[in-house]
Amino acid sequence: MSLHTRQGRTLLRLSIVFNILIVAAIFWIYSFPIDDPALTRSAADGEPSIRVVEKVVERVVEKVVEVPQIVSGASCSLCTANATLCDEMSEGSVEASISYRGTNQRLRRALAKMRSGKPFNVAVVGGSVSRGHTLKEDPEETCKANLHRRIFDHLDAKFPGKGEAFISLPSTESKKGEGRNGFVNGAQGGTGSDYFSMCFQEHIPTDVDIVIVELAINDQNYLEFQRPYELLLRGLLDLPSQPAIINLQTLALPLHALVSGAIPHTAIAQYMDVPTISLQHAVMPQILRDEAYTKQVFVVHDDGEVDGRHLSRWGHQKMGDIVNAYLDTQLCEMDRLEAAEKKRTGKSDIDIDTLYKLDPLPRLLTSDQWDPKRTIPALRPTCASMNSPNKPVPAKNDGWTEWAWKDKNYMITKTPGSTISFEVNTGIGIVQIFYLRSWEFHLGVLKCWLDDNEAAAVTMQGYWDQKFNIGQRYDVAKDASPGKHMLNCKFLGKDGNKASGDEFRIISVMSI
Ligand SMILES: *[C@@H]1O[C@H](CO)[C@@H](O)[C@H](O)[C@H]1NC(C)=O
Fold first, then answer.
1. pLDDT (tens digit, 9 = 90+) per residue, 264-305?
2. Where exactly are the transmembrane stretches of this chain (predicted)?
């Protein structure tokens, strides 16, 4: 023990002497005059390194001036578009937010029309974050702190319409005819792409130019969510106004998985060439390193509890600003393309349909088998919901009535053997019923089939043992022939479970 201590002391002394020698040597070197004035240093005037940097900067600046006026694509970056944003969040996290870029053809086409002076509509299909839940301003959907409103305001300031902008809660109205720009927030809390793929047209104007879709935290981390999400994107892209979609992915912590619908969605967005911007990629690494960062990203309630499902005002602002910077990078790229096009044609204007031509959608769905000939028809989803002005109208009805609990409306029966039929129209053969599932309302079993094909009937259970009540979709047909069909349903009453009972509640009838 003592031997070790004595050796240790000797080593310590030696190392102190050595350090003194090094410091002395450095002073000795600096006491010689150095020729380069930028490096000259005496004890009084220091900072040679800064002067060296100045020289380097001068050289770089000289070089930059030499490059031609049309800047390269690389300079149209998010951080060039908004340097403040990158200062606040770090360049790395802002750049990481671009999950998929794609061709941006539709987006540029939409922006080119805006730039040419045409009025435009921006609409939102999303969940409670998009709805602005917890922003605590009235109305949360359209207040200036809402990330989507921030995006609309950015575009509206650049490309103002005639008169005041039309700012609205879910609505199918458009004021483009009056030359006005419009913003419609069609988001619904707790609603995923299975509902929106069929029913988006009940919540936003179909004459829309840019649709922002935010459903990554409302759908789950399972492949079965790809189909409704793909149908949603297609249905939107198939609208006669041929809008661009921006896919926004936000994040929420207390879900079934840390990353939920973003996983199945991203592959579909790539296949459909839909640009995808993810706040999750920008902030999750920091959240995982430092839990306190959740207080920045998410809402903090008065009692100090962090609501890990809903973005804070900061989160709304940053998500909005990232998208705005992205839009600006597209405008920057378009300047470059348009300058080259004008040079090529010798004209002072560009032709939008030539430079930003509308490409056809992929002929097939991701889940289809390869078929060199087949092209799926344009999707025209239909959604007759008891909760919208467009209610399902029975073609035949024996024992069903309309009924409501508060603002929730149903077509309901309490008599086993009751039948109801609806006429439906389908393009790709999907017919669905949306109905209530509950553990407490004593719901029974419904049997449904198309036309006379009762042999192929499906049955759906109203009762379940999960401790919440929620609407759920069920496919009555997945590959019916295109065109009109009769959807027939018969209430069978209780199932084997003693908590089930003699009641059934239909919410909507949907087809695509
Ligand atoms: C850039 O980002 C900052 C920080 O989020 C924001 O305050 C500012 O309004 C943004 N500027 C533009 C032009 O979007």
1. 999 999 999 999 999 999 999 999 999 999 999 999 999 999
2. 12-32
Beta-bridge partner residues of 315: none
Token representation of residue 163 = 């008169």
Is residue 85 in contact with ligand 1, taking CB distance under 6 Å?
A: yes
Distance CA 438, CA 436 (A): 6
Instruction: State which amino acid sits at residue 462.
Output: G
Residues 6+ apart with CB under 8 A from 50: none
Least Cα distance to 316 among 146, 74, 120 occurs for 146
3 state DSSP class of 92: helix
Cβ-proximal residues to 73 (8 Å cutoff; 6+ apart), any chain: 333, 336
CA–centroid distance, 388 to ligand 1, in Å, is 38
Q: How far apart are CA 463 and CA 408, in angstroms?
A: 18
Token couple for 200: 């988006």
Q: Which residues contact 443 (CB under 8 A, 6 or more apart)?
A: 436, 437, 461, 462, 463, 500, 501, 503, 504, 505
The upper half-sphere exposure of residue 39, i.e. CA atoms within 13 Å in the direction of its Cβ, equals 7
State the distance from the centre of ligand 1 to the C-alpha of 316, rounded, in angstroms: 12
Given the CA of residue 325, which atom of ligand 1 is nearest to it?
A: 14
Q: Edge to edge, what strands does the sheet with 396-398 contain?
A: 396-398, 419-426, 483-493, 445-450, 458-461
Structure tokens at 501: 């009972």
**Which domains, ranges and CATH numbers included, belong to the chain?**
78-355 (3.40.50.1110), 382-511 (2.60.120.260)
- CB 82 near ligand 1, within 6 Å: yes
Distance spanning both ends of the chain, measured CA to CA = 84
Residue 7, H or E segment: helix 2-30
pLDDT in tens, 144-200: 999 999 999 999 999 999 999 999 999 999 999 999 999 999 999 888 998 899 999
Residues 6+ apart with CB under 8 A from 230: 268, 271, 272, 365, 366, 367
Q: How would you classify residue 428: left for phi > 0, otherwise alpha for psi between -120 and 50, otherwise beta?
A: alpha
Residue with tokens 């619904």: 188
What was the pLDDT predicted at 170?
A: 93
Residue type, 410: Y
Residue with tokens 């041929």: 242
| 86 CB near ligand 1 (under 6 Å) | no
pTM over 0.85: no
The span from the CA of 361 to the CA of 359, in Å, is 6
Q: Is the per-residue pLDDT at 453 higher than 80?
A: yes
Residue 208: burial class (beta carbons within 10 Å; 0-12, 13-18, 19+): buried
